[in-house]
Every structure is written in structure tokens, then in C-alpha cells.
């Protein structure tokens, strides 16, 4: 957006007018103040020039050249600041005063504006620098230029620098493309100012056409309907939007009593917000009581359509979520060095540039939401909201009301006024449907309709609400398998799987283990430990790399936090001090090796003995035959002899037969 350049003849005036612009437009752009004595070092393509008055362009050839080269500009119309005219009103009728300003034309313009406001009971004489002659007067009135007042003047009345009028501010807003975004914020402010002004000046000034036209211009600029009434309920002001709402064309309502025009207004209390219906339209009514010593007491009623409020709410949500969205992960936050991850990230970055639906599949702990946030941060929707929804954590009986919203009275416990759903919250941004594989079939049908039509209907409602969202879904389930089992709709799968992303498990990118470990060690030790070999011996490090990491990066992070907590500066940890799930893994590997050495037949024989109180060779041979195990009685005898030599079994005479020793029991249990 272009920045505003405030330019005036003098620095003081320019600074004052820039402050006024800052109050109105400071939220949206930057404002810089220049005087005609300054170098014009601003970029004309990036600037909108606001001239304090007409005639400045002809005064400086630099300006003529900049405007000829395409500099956009607004010539300001300025009005008397009515907050400072009280002292003038107290002057006796017929008092002579000098009107002091920096130029002849602006001094004369100020005189005309004061007269137009009804302050015409005094006699004005213009005064400005280099004036050839002027009448000597005891009183001088100046608009913020007391340093220009002649030294022989006895009394100075400073009514301060004239301010931009509402027409000028509207023209600036239009050129910046802000009329719709700013809504009625400055219009309503100036409306109250002008109403106060009407009652500050004398009775005759209220009838003046210039003031009346300016007041009506402000009112008609407002998108909302407004009515201002005095304490008797008589209408003092209305605007065109109010006439349109009432269905009036040529009928005048100013001067009429509000209850004759709008009987529904009786129930609206002062300084409150309520809802009424006018000609079948539901409207929110805000009443603001005016209690000002400078004006007649009364009430301003503002009527706002529900649709306009919803648009404003969308804008509020967009602005409030902007700060949140800046905290989301980006691709720069993803730690990797492997070629496999680089190929994946390059592909996902390309996906980010589109608005197509993405399905992210991968095991738990691989960082699916991190990838989703990075996609959003890289996309054209990055200034919009990122709304995550976890189907695994949300009760299915609440899912529709949470995602689609609900109307008032839709069900027991529904909030008054209803509630917007998460799809509406995500309007203009991205909605992340995490663990989509856990969604019920019934809800999958509703979700399919939303994806196809890009509009939602609240629970208990009839109106379709358009939504503009980018959908990213994620799951750790194999959705093709879920489709075969009848747990997931094929048509929804193909709607979601427009741009497929499979996030790699840590065992598929083992070269990243070292880098990720360094990152997490540094994080949890506050920079005191930056490498695995500072805290683990070589054997323990090898175990980390040999481990399969079923919990992926999340599990590795937990392991590094554990290692930092139990670490000792004086001694490196060995493999026996690693987390239990890693130790269990290499014990299982050792047991697996023992199993391979013993062989399947030996393990079968020992397992049969474990489940009995002793068996003979013949009985074992019968069990083998029943279980289709190809072992003869002679082979079983040989196996038992080998087991006895290893201390795994012992033979007994009689019916007790062969039994497992304590060592044999431990071995078989470890292999199970």
C-alpha cells in the first residue's frame, strides 16, 4: 500500500496535519510530513501526496515535475477546528479582528468558513506576511500561526490549524483502496463532531446551507442507516441508507417524531444494542446517547445489517489470527540433510504455490502438522488463519457442530445466537484436517459435500454459507486399506488425494539422525551439549543408529531429552543407560540370534516342555505328528540330548520324563 506524504508550506502545519492523518490511516499505512523547504526524497511510485491547500503545485517546479512523472496526489480541503471557536463566540457584536494566516488566499478562505459557520457577528480583516497595508487592530485571530501576528496586537485568539474535512479523508481512503475496509470508523467520528458543531454556534448558523450540506454528505457516506433524534424524539438527521431501509423515496422525515416513523424503536434503550425487524429485514440497532454541554441531548441510532456484521467479523478474525499465523512453522524450521528429505521438501514447496487440496500420509511422529503449517506459511494464504482439527481427539457426536457451526436452539445447550464453525473460522486461510482416517462414515459424507460445494450449512440452519478455504488433510492410516475394509469412502479419498504427500519415517532417512540429535540436545541442554559424542560412548551411538525408531522424530526428541536429563559431564553414557525401549530392542536382537542358533525344531521341543510338567520322547513325537511338525522320535531324542548338554533340560526316570531347567525356562520366555 502507498504511504502518505503530507506536504504544506510550513513544517508546523505539515506536522499537525500528518498527526490527523495518522489517527485515521495509521493502522493501514505510514505517514511522513514534508514542508516546501525540504528535499522531496520520497519514491513517487510508492507514495500518495496530500497537499495542504490548492496552489502549492504552481509554487514549486519540483512538484510540477513529480506530478508530470505520475505522482498521485490529493489537494486537501480544510475546515475550521470547531473545538477552539468558543472564544470567538464570546466576542461582542461588531468587534474588529485581524484574521492571520500564511497566505492571502488561505486567510480569506478562513474568513469565509467562519462566516459560513455563523460566526458573522464580528468584522474580519485579512493579514498575511508581506501585506502592503492593513488596519491596526487590538485583537488577532489566527489558525495556528501566532508567530505571524503583528507585534502591536494586544490579544491573540488561536483557533489552531485547520483540519482535513471528511471529503478529503474519503478521497484519500478511496485512492488507498480503504473505503470498504475502514467502514464507518471515521464517518461516525466526524458525524458526532459535526452534530456538536451545529449546537455550538448560534441559532442562525444551524440554518446555513454549507453546514447542512456538509453534515448530510457525512451521513450519506455511511454504509449503515442512521437517525439522530433530540430528547423529544424529533428527528434531526437521517441519511439515504435509512430512507432506503424504510422504503421512502421523496418523503421527508426530518422534524417528524421517531415513534411515528419507526414504532419499533420504543423498545430500544439508550446506550444499548438490540435487534429489530424493518420491512422483513433483521437489523442490529446500536443507540448512543449524546450528553454534551455544547449540543442538545439526544440519541444516535445506527442500524446494521446482519450480513455486514458477519463481514466485519471475518475481517476481525483475519486480523487477530494474523499474529498467530506468524508463529507457525515454516520450511526453514524443518531439520534435515538427507537427499530423500530434500526431494520431499522440494515437491511440497511446489505444492504450496497452488490452492489444491493436499493429503499428507505418514506414521505417527513424522511431523505431518509441521509440514502442513509450512505449506500454509509458504502459500498465498499465509496472512489468513491456519485452523487445525484433530479427528482422533474430537468426539464424533460433536464433530459436525464444531466444524460447521450451529444456529441458536439447534440442540440442548446451544449458545444463544449460535456459533460459527471451524470452516468459517478458516475463511481466507487453511483448514488442517488431522487424523482424517478416524472420521466416521456419516461425517465423511458431510465433508465430501463441503469439499465439492465450498459452502457449509450450520447445524439447525437453512442458509448455505460460502467458504474460501484451502484443505490439507493428514492421517497415519493406510486409507486404501481402510477403503477395502469399508471404513473410508473412496470418493472422499480421491477428493482429498489431489496432491499426495508421504512423509518419510526416521528409519528411511537415517542420515538425519545425527543432525536431529544435535538439534534436540542443544535445545534441551540450553546449548551446553551440541553433539552425541559429547554425552554417549561409541557403542551407545551405534545403538541409536541401529534402532528402528517406530515413533520417528517425536520419539527421537523424547530420547534426547531423556539423555540430557540423566547425562553426566564426567562420564559418557553407555548403551545400558539408554531409554528402556532402546535397550529392549537390542535384548530382542540378542534373543533373536540365540533363536537362530538353536533352530526352530529345538525351540519347538523346549516350548512343549514349558507348557507341561514333563514329557517323554514318545509323547513329544505324538504331539509333533498332530501338529504336522516333521520330527521323528529319534530326532527328538537327539534334540533333547543337545538341550541337556546346554543345561536347558534335565531327564527323569519314570513318568515325569524330561523337564525344563530354570535356564531353559528363562530362555523360552525371552524368545516369546
Structural commentary:
This protein is of the alpha/beta class. The protein has 6 domains: 75 residues, Rossmann fold, CATH 3.40.50; 79 residues, Rossmann fold (3-Layer(aba) Sandwich); 129 residues, Beta-Lactamase; 177 residues, P-loop containing nucleotide triphosphate hydrolases (Rossmann fold), CATH 3.40.50; 84 residues, Helicase, Ruva Protein, domain 3 (Orthogonal Bundle), CATH 1.10.8; 73 residues, Winged helix-like DNA-binding domain superfamily/Winged helix DNA-binding domain (Arc Repressor Mutant, subunit A, Orthogonal Bundle). 42% of the residues lie in helices and 17% in strands. It is built from 28 helices and 26 strands. The strands form 8 sheets. The protein has a 5-stranded antiparallel β-sheet. A 5-stranded parallel β-sheet has the order 17-20-23-16-24. Helix 26 packs across helix 27. The longest helix has 20 residues. About 4% of the residues have low confidence.
Output the keywords:
26 strands; five-stranded parallel beta sheet; five-stranded antiparallel beta sheet; alpha/beta; 672 residues; Rossmann fold; Beta-Lactamase; 6 domains
Largest pleated sheet: 5 strands, antiparallel
Question: What do the pLDDT scores average to?
Answer: 83
Rg calc: 41 Å
The CATH architecture assignment of the largest domain turns out to be: 3-Layer(aba) Sandwich
The CATH top-level class label of the largest domain: Alpha Beta
- Helix fraction by DSSP (H/I, runs of at least 4): 40-55%
* Low-pLDDT windows of residues: 198-212, 316-326
CATH topology of the largest domain: Rossmann fold
Strand line-up across the major sheet: 12-11-15-14-13
CATH superfamily of the largest domain: P-loop containing nucleotide triphosphate hydrolases
Q: How many DSSP-defined strands? A: 26
Q: In what range is the share of β-strand residues? A: 15-25%
Summed up, the domain count is: 6
> Structural class, from secondary structure content?
alpha/beta
- End-to-end separation: 70 Å
Number of helices: 28
Amino acid at each position: 500500500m502507498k504511504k502518505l506524504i503530507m506536504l504544506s508550506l510550513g513544517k508546523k502545519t505539515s506536522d499537525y496535519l500528518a498527526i490527523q492523518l495518522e489517527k485515521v490511516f495509521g493502522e493501514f499505512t505510514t505517514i511522513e510530513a514534508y514542508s516546501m523547504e525540504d528535499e522531496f526524497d520520497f519514491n513517487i511510485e510508492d507514495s500518495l501526496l496530500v497537499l495542504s491547500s490548492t496552489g502549492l503545485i504552481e509554487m514549486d517546479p519540483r512538484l510540477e515535475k513529480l506530478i508530470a512523472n505520475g505522482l498521485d496526489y490529493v489537494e486537501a480541503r480544510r475546515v475550521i477546528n470547531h473545538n477552539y471557536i468558543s472564544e470567538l463566540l464570546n466576542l461582542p457584536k461588531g468587534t474588529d479582528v485581524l484574521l492571520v494566516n500564511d497566505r492571502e488566499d488561505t486567510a480569506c478562505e478562513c474568513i469565509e468558513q467562519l462566516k459560513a459557520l455563523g460566526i458573522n457577528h464580528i468584522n474580519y480583516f485579512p493579514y498575511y506576511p508581506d501585506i502592503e497595508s492593513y488596519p491596526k487592530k487590538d485583537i488577532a485571530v489566527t489558525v495556528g500561526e501566532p508567530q505571524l501576528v503583528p507585534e502591536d496586537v494586544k490579544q491573540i485568539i488561536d483557533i489552531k490549524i485547520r483540519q482535513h474535512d471528511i471529503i478529503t479523508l474519503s478521497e484519500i481512503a478511496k485512492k488507498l483502496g480503504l473505503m470498504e475496509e475502514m467502514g464507518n470508523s471515521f464517518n461516525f467520528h466526524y458525524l458526532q463532531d459535526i452534530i456538536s458543531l451545529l449546537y455550538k454556534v448560534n441559532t442562525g448558523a444551524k440554518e446555513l446551507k454549507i453546514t447542512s450540506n456538509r453534515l448530510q454528505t457525512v451521513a450519506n457516506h455511511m454504509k449503515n442507516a442512521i437517525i439522530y433524534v433530540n430528547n423529544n424524539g424529533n428527528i434531526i438527521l437521517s441519511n439515504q441508507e435509512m430512507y432506503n431501509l424504510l422504503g421512502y423515496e421523496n418523503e421527508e422525515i426530518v422534524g417528524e417524531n421517531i415513534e411515528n416513523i419507526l414504532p419499533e424503536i420504543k423498545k430500544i434503550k439508550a446506550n444499548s444494542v438490540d435487534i429489530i425487524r424493518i420491512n422483513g429485514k433483521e437489523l442490529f440497532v446500536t443507540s448512543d446517547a449524546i450528553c454534551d454541554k455544547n449540543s442538545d441531548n439526544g440519541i444516535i441510532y445506527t442500524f446494521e445489517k446482519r450480513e455486514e456484521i458477519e463481514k466485519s467479523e471475518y475481517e476481525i478474525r483475519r486480523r487477530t489470527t494474523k499474529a498467530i499465523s506468524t508463529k507457525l512453522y515454516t520450511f526453514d524450521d524443518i531439520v534435515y540433510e538427507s537427499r530423500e528429505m530434500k526431494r520431499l521438501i522440494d515437491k511440497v514447496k511446489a505444492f504450496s504455490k497452488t490452492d489444491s487440496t493436499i493429503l499428507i500420509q505418514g506414521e505417527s511422529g513424522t511431523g505431518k502438522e509441521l509440514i502442513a503449517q509450512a505449506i500454509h506459511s509458504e502459500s498465498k494464504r499465509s496472512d489468513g488463519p491456519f485452523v487445525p482439527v484433530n479427528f482422533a481427539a474430537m468426539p464424533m457426536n460433536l464433530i459436525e457442530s464444531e466444524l460447521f457451526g450451529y444456529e441458536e436452539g439447534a440442540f440442548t445447550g446451544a449458545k444463544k445466537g449460535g456459533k460459527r464453525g471451524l470452516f468459517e473460522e478458516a475463511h481466507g486461510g487453511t483448514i488442517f484436517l488431522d487424523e482424517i482416517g478416524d472420521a466416521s462414515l456419516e461425517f465423511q459424507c458431510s465433508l465430501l459435500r463441503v469439499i465439492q460445494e465450498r459452502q457449509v450449512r450450520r447445524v439447525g440452519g437453512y442458509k448455505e454459507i460460502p467458504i474460501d478455504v484451502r484443505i490439507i488433510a493428514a492421517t497415519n492410516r493406510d486409507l486404501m486399506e481402510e477403503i477395502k475394509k469399508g471404513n473410508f469412502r473412496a470418493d472422499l479419498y480421491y477428493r482429498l488425494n489431489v496432491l499426495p504427500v508421504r512423509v518419510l519415517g526416521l528409519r528411511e532417512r537415517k542420515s538425519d539422525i545425527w543432525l536431529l540429535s544435535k538439534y534436540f540436545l542443544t535445545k534441551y541442554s540450553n546449548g551446553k551439549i551440541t553433539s552425541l559424542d559429547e554425552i554417549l560412548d561409541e557403542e551407545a551411538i551405534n545403538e541409536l543408529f541401529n534402532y528402528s525408531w517406530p515413533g520417528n522424530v517425536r520419539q527421537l526428541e523424547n530420547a534426547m531429552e531423556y539423555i540430557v536429563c540423566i547425562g553426566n559431564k564426567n562420564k559418557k553414557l553407555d548403551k545400558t543407560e539408554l531409554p528402556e525401549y532402546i535397550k529392549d530392542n537390542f535384548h530382542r536382537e540378542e534373543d533373536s540370534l540365540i533363536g537362530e542358533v538353536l533352530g526352530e525344531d529345538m525351540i519347538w521341543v523346549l516350548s512343549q516342555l514349558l507348557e507341561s510338567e514333563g514329557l517323554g520322547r514318545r509323547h513329544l513325537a505324538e504331539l509333533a505328528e498332530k501338529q504336522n511338525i516333521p520330527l521323528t522320535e529319534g530326532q527328538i531324542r537327539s534334540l533333547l540330548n543337545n538341550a541337556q548338554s546346554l543345561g536347558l533340560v534335565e531327564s527323569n526316570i519314570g513318568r515325569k520324563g524330561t523337564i525344563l531347567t530354570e535356564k531353559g525356562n528363562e530362555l523360552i520366555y525371552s524368545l516369546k
